[in-house]
Write a structure and sequence with these properties.
The complex is a heterodimer. By secondary structure, chain A is mainly alpha-helical. Helix content of chain A is 44%, strand content 8%. Chain A has one domain: Orthogonal Bundle (Arc Repressor Mutant, subunit A), CATH 1.10.10. In chain A, a hairpin with a 4-residue loop joins strand 1 and strand 2. By secondary structure, chain B is α/β, with parallel strands linked by helices. Chain B has two domains: 171 residues, 3-Layer(bba) Sandwich (FAD/NAD(P)-binding domain); 149 residues, D-Amino Acid Oxidase, Chain A, domain 2 (2-Layer Sandwich), CATH 3.30.9.10. In chain B, 28% of the residues lie in helices and 26% in strands. In chain B, the strands form four sheets. An eight-stranded mixed sheet of chain B has the order 6-7-5-15-16-17-14-18, with helices on both faces. Chain B has a six-stranded mixed sheet with strand order 9-3-2-13-20-19, sandwiched between helices. Chain B has a four-stranded mixed sheet with strand order 1-12-11-10, with no helix packed on it. The longest helix of chain B has 16 residues. Chain B is globular, with a radius of gyration of 20 Å. Chain B starts with a strand and ends in a 30-residue tail after the last helix. The chains are: A mainly alpha, B alpha/beta. Chains A and B meet through helix 2, strand 3 and helix 4 of A and helix 7, helix 9 and strand 18 of B.
Chain lengths: 93, 381
């Protein structure tokens, strides 16, 4: 299949080709790739693409996937409207 | 290994300094970082750039830096895009004191050629239609200000420096700086010793620790600042909306998401960059008050980074009297990203012994040792 048409990150529309191009340019850490391509920075926060990115980097570096660190997981676990957070904070007073 | 010039830190400042030196023909430049480019404060910042400051020095640093950003893609021959969007900063005056101070700020800015202006509540509402204008007294606006992608801007300097032969070593952690007879002679890392007579401390939040390795004490400390990003939506807000007294900055970035942050007056002076609930609560309440429409959006991620605070909220750039060959580029107090083109230029001039584009007295470490009054920048969130 054409790597230009394979999407690793569905939230941010990042293709396999974009990831492979960056790997070829020497960007091999998931944190760097995330920051340049926005892979894993969308609403699902890398829950789908994180492992795919890990596999792709491992394949490129000829390592095992578990040797490649996953990008940092950051809060929140799921999207929450700011308004809901503000209302909850009001209730605490 | 040896280096003519060794730069510690591959954030926006370190990469900008490396590129400026390399483009002037300097050879054998090495940059060391314990992580990767922009992994510290740069990659965690709010992505805003502005010319609206309250001190003349900060105004000039910002003005000349923005002139560079306008042409950064071309100058650095960047194959991607640094995403510079000039749709202004709307800075809200929420107290009579702020309203009066902003009149002075605009007069200073205009005298330097910065096209900022005072605007009424109603005008502010025209600029940002979803602004709750009842919460403000007035505002200032400057259309030259805007957004710039911190990852891409750093990547642009990094790639351009690499093309000119700069060597980047990472992940590699500096563990010591050897000084002999008052001169820098080597830098020790966890992987090797690099002989060098010139070291630049561009280590952001860790610049105090790095300086200490060379036996230099500098009046800076790291301070956690938290930030969050929402889901992306279609474009509804051009400028950054900012308030110093209400502790808020909030901008819709070209990608469509809103990035917003605030400081914590009670933050400890340490390297903590964890995320907390208290920030989320306070941020949500502040946005609901000033930009109620934006409060409908979902938060998808929060993070934090270190400001490196200096006593007057202006950077510390240049030499240190005690140690020959040790240079400082630190203490940016939350605006190192937007000053980077000038940081790079001025540092390259100092290191190469050239006349400097701006008078460096006000930026020198020595300003804190003389018993003279220093002008403190108040326009910081």
């Amino acid at each position: 299949m054409n790597p230009e048409k394979i999407f690793l990150c569905r939230c941010e529309d990042v293709t396999l080709k974009q990831v492979r191009d960056l790997l070829d340019q020497g960007y091999t850490s998931p944190e760097e790739i995330k920051r340049i391509l926005r892979i894993g920075m969308g609403p699902c926060q890398g829950k789908t693409c994180g492992l795919l990115l890990q596999q792709e980097i491992a394949r490129y570096l000829k390592k095992r996937p578990e040797e490649i660190p996953l990008p940092h997981a950051r809060p929140l676990v799921a999207g929450v409207p700011l308004e809901a957070i503000a209302e909850a904070a009001d209730d605490e007073r | 290994m040896n280096a003519e010039i060794l730069i510690i830190g591959a954030g926006i400042s370190g990469t900008a300094i490396a590129w400026n030196l390399a483009r002037k023909g300097q050879k054998n430049i090495v940059v060391v970082d314990s992580g990767y480019p922009a992994c510290g404060a740069t990659g965690r910042c709010g992505a805003g750039v502005r010319e609206q400051w309250a001190t003349k020095m900060n105004c000039l640093m910002a003005q000349k830096s923005i002139a560079f950003f306008e042409q950064a893609n071309e100058i650095l021959e960047y194959p991607d895009d640094v995403e510079f969007k000039q749709e202004g900063y709307l800075i809200l005056a929420c107290t009579p004191e702020e309203d009066a101070q902003f009149t002075k700020n605009v007069a200073l800015q205009n005298s330097l050629g910065i096209p900022s202006r005072k605007v009424t509540r109603e005008e502010a509402k025209q600029i940002v239609p979803h602004l709750n204008e009842k919460a403000i007294l007035s505002a200032t606006f400057c259309g030259k200000d805007g957004h710039l992608n911190p990852f891409k801007m750093t990547d642009a300097f990094y790639r351009a420096a690499k093309r000119l032969g700069v060597v980047f070593l990472f992940p590699e952690t500096v563990e010591g700086i050897d000084v002999s007879d008052g001169k820098v002679v080597a830098v020790r890392t966890d992987k090797r010793t690099i002989a060098t007579s010139k070291v630049v401390d561009a280590a952001g939040g860790f610049s105090g620790e790095i300086a200490k390795m060379a036996g230099v004490s500098i009046p800076v400390y790291p301070e956690r600042h938290e930030i969050l990003v929402t889901e992306p939506i279609e474009k509804i807000q051009g400028p950054m909306v900012m308030s110093f007294s209400k502790n808020l900055y909030c901008q819709q970035v070209p990608h469509g998401s809103f990035v917003m942050g605030r400081g914590d007056p009670g933050a400890k002076h340490d390297h903590d960059i964890s995320s907390g609930w208290r920030f989320l609560d306070e941020m949500a309440k502040t946005v609901r008050e000033f930009l109620p429409l934006v409060a409908k959006l979902r938060v998808i991620r929060q993070w934090a980074g270190s400001y490196t605070m200096s006593p007057d909220r202006q950077p510390i750039l240049g030499t240190v009297p005690e140690v020959e060959g040790f240079y400082l580029a630190c203490g940016f107090s939350g605006h190192g990203f937007m000053f980077a083109p000038m940081t790079g230029l001025l540092m390259s001039e100092v290191i190469l012994g050239e006349p400097t584009t701006l008078d460096m007295t006000e930026l020198s470490l020595a300003r804190f040792h003389q018993n003279q009054a220093i002008e403190i920048e108040k326009s910081v969130v």
